[in-house]
Specification:
By secondary structure, this protein is of the alpha+beta class. It has a single domain, classed as Cytidine Deaminase, domain 2. The radius of gyration is 16 Å and the shape is globular. It has a 5-stranded mixed sheet. The termini are far apart. It is built from 5 helices and 5 strands, in the order H-E-E-H-E-H-E-E-H-H. The longest helix has 15 residues, at 8-22.
Length: 146
């Protein structure tokens, strides 16, 4: 969904909803509260917050949390994603989140913000240049069966 024009008012709304979701984060270990808001095709906005775990590995980032909520509502087509964190400079989705998001929207517009009000706009394709996709999986499977 590359080159989709997103109005400034929608971008602002996404940042506000991501920031509100951030307040719901469970981050007792890192104290790094992150919120995400995904704009879905049709205009619905779905939010998620990070959920940490003492074992770290089972922790869930805000972006993947929002994807899970969207899927549980039957929403599969994403138009844009806003992420709000406390970091300066603004934080981008982690590698695992990039991979999950690329499954559904390889060039998803990203609106990255922090609690200081800094905003950076980019795309998933710009920050995740060599996405692992179904074609790569098929190619690897073919090598294993040869």
């Amino acid at each position: 969904m590359a080159n989709i024009a997103i109005s400034d008012s929608i971008k602002k709304q996404l940042i506000e909803k991501a920031n509100a979701a951030r307040a719901l984060a469970y981050a007792p270990y890192s104290n790094f509260h992150v919120g995400a808001a995904i704009l879905c095709e049709g205009g619905e906005i779905v939010t998620g917050a990070n959920i940490e775990n003492a074992a770290y590995g089972p922790s869930l980032c805000a972006e993947r949390s929002a994807v899970a909520v969207a899927f549980s509502r039957g929403l599969r087509h994403f138009v844009a994603l806003a992420v709000v964190s406390p970091s300066t400079p603004v934080a981008a989705p982690c590698g695992t989140c990039r991979q999950v998001l690329s499954e559904f929207a390889p060039d998803l517009p990203l609106i990255l913000s922090n609690t200081s009000g800094d905003v950076e706009e980019t795309t998933l394709g710009a920050i995740f240049l060599k996405q692992f996709d179904a074609a790569a999986l098929r190619s690897g499977t073919q090598l294993l069966t040869e």
